[in-house]
C-alpha cells in the first residue's frame, strides 16, 4: 500500500509524548482540532506499509494564528451514477499549482487505502483522464492555514508527489471541516521494496540503492532551496513507481519553512531517523536534520535493517554512539 497517511514500523516503538498539547514552533497555546475533540496524540500522512511508530503530537500542522476565510467552494459536492451504475463524486476543487480558479473535478472507484486518528486516504480514478489519484482527507481547523497545503502548493518537482487539487468538505458533526488533498497515486514505497529483499535474506542491488538515494537527495536539494525542511524522512515516505523506478517524496505533514531565530518543535521525525540534536531537544535546528535522516535511509538499504534501532531517546543515542 502506498504511503500518504501514516502508520509506522514497529510495535515496540510505541510511545506517548507527555505533552500539554500546546502548539509547537513557538506559537500560542492553542490546541489542534483533534485534541479539542479528545483524540489525543497521534500522527498521520504518508501511505504505506507496515507496523506502528511512536505517536506524536500534530499541533504543529497549523501556522501561527493566521485566520483563514471560509473557502467559497466549501461543501460543493454532489454524487451521481455513471452509465455503468458506478458512483461518481463531483467536487469544486482548486488546482494545486497556479491561480486559484476553482473547477469541477469528478472521480469514481473510491476506496480506502489508509487511515489514522487524523484522517483517511482514498484511492480514486479521475473521470476525465482515467488516472488514479490518492485523496487525503484530514480534519481542518477553519481558524488556521494548514501548513502542509501551503507548502505543497509551492512545490513542483519530478521527485516530489504532486498536489493536483484540493477542496473542502463537511463532516458528520456540525462545523466539522475536512481538507481533501488530491495527490499523485504511486503504488509502492522504498520501505516495502527493502522489506521484500530483507525477508528473502537478500541485499537490495546497489544500482537500486544509488538510484533511490540520488532521487531522494534531488528532492531534498529542491525543498531546501526554499528553506523547507521535511522533518520526517524515512523509507515509508519515499514512494516508488515499480515500472519506472521513479521515487517521489511524500508526507509533508511535518514539514516547515524554517526561519532563523524562530523556535521549532524538537519532538519531530520518526525515532530511527532522528538526528542527535533532536534527541537532545534542540529547537534551533536546520535542514541538516533531513540529511541525517537520509543517511539513515542509505544505511538501512545497505544493511537490510535500521542502523540505529533505539527503543527510546536515550537508547537511540546509545546506538548512535556505538555506531560512530
Automatic annotation (TrEMBL):
Belongs to the protein kinase superfamily. CMGC Ser/Thr protein kinase family. MAP kinase subfamily. Belongs to the protein kinase superfamily. CMGC Ser/Thr protein kinase family. GSK-3 subfamily. Its EC number is 2.7.11.24, 2.7.11.26. ATP binds at residue 137. Keywords: ATP-binding, Biological rhythms, Cell membrane, Cytoplasm, Developmental protein, Differentiation, Kinase, Membrane, Neurogenesis, Nucleotide-binding, Nucleus, Phosphoprotein, Serine/threonine-protein kinase, Transferase, Wnt signaling pathway. Residues 1-37 are annotated as: Disordered. It comes from Crotalus adamanteus. It is found in: Cell membrane; Cytoplasm; Nucleus. GO terms for cellular component: axon; beta-catenin destruction complex; cytosol; glutamatergic synapse; nucleus; plasma membrane. GO terms for molecular function: ATP binding; beta-catenin binding; MAP kinase activity; tau-protein kinase activity. This is Glycogen synthase kinase-3 beta. Pfam families: Pkinase (PF00069). Residues 107-324 form the Protein kinase domain. GO terms for biological process: cell differentiation; insulin receptor signaling pathway; negative regulation of canonical Wnt signaling pathway; negative regulation of TOR signaling; nervous system development; positive regulation of proteasomal ubiquitin-dependent protein catabolic process; regulation of microtubule cytoskeleton organization; regulation of neuron projection development. It catalyses: L-threonyl-[tau protein] + ATP = O-phospho-L-threonyl-[tau protein] + ADP + H(+); L-threonyl-[protein] + ATP = O-phospho-L-threonyl-[protein] + ADP + H(+); L-seryl-[protein] + ATP = O-phospho-L-seryl-[protein] + ADP + H(+); L-seryl-[tau protein] + ATP = O-phospho-L-seryl-[tau protein] + ADP + H(+).
Amino acid at each position: 500500500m502506498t504511503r500518504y497517511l501514516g502508520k509506522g514500523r514497529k510495535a515496540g516503538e510505541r510511545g506517548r509524548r507527555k505533552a500539554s498539547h500546546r502548539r509547537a514552533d513557538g506559537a500560542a497555546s492553542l490546541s489542534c482540532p483533534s485534541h479539542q475533540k479528545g483524540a489525543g496524540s497521534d500522527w498521520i500522512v504518508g501511505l504505506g506499509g507496515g507496523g506502528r511508530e511512536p505517536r506524536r503530537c500534530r499541533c504543529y500542522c497549523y501556522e501561527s494564528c493566521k485566520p483563514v476565510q471560509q473557502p467559497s467552494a466549501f461543501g460543493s459536492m454532489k454524487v451521481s451514477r455513471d452509465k455503468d451504475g458506478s458512483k461518481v463524486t463531483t467536487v469544486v476543487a482548486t488546482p494545486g499549482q497556479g491561480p486559484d480558479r476553482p473547477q469541477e473535478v469528478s472521480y469514481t472507484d473510491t476506496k480506502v487505502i489508509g487511515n489514522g486518528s487524523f484522517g483517511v486516504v482514498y484511492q480514486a480514478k479521475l473521470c476525465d483522464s482515467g488516472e488514479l489519484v490518492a485523496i487525503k482527507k484530514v480534519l481542518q481547523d477553519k481558524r488556521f492555514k494548514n501548513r502542509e497545503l501551503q507548502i505543497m502548493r509551492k512545490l513542483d518537482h519530478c521527485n516530489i508527489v504532486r498536489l493536483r487539487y484540493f477542496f473542502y468538505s463537511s463532516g458528520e458533526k456540525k462545523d466539522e471541516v475536512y481538507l481533501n488533498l488530491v495527490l499523485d497515486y504511486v503504488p509502492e514505497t522504498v520501505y516495502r521494496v527493502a522489506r521484500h529483499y530483507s525477508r528473502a535474506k537478500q541485499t537490495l542491488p546497489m544500482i537500486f540503492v544509488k538510484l533511490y538515494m540520488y532521487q531522494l537527495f534531488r528532492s531534498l536539494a529542491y525543498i531546501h532551496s526554499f528553506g523547507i525542511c521535511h522533518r520526517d524522512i524515512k523509507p515509508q515516505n519515499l514512494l516508488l513507481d515499480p515500472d519506472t523506478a521513479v521515487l517521489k517524496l511524500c508526507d509533508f505533514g511535518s514539514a516547515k519553512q524554517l526561519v532563523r531565530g524562530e523556535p521549532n518543535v524538537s519532538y519531530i521525525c520518526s525515532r530511527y531517523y532522528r538526528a542527535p540534536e533532536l534527541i537532545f531537544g534542540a529547537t534551533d535546528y536546520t535542514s541538516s536534520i533531513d540529511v541525517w535522516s537520509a543517511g539513515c535511509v542509505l544505511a538501512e538499504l545497505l544493511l537490510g535493517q535500521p542502523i540505529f534501532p533505539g527503543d527510546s531517546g536515550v537508547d537511540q543515542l546509545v546506538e548512535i554512539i556505538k555506531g560512530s
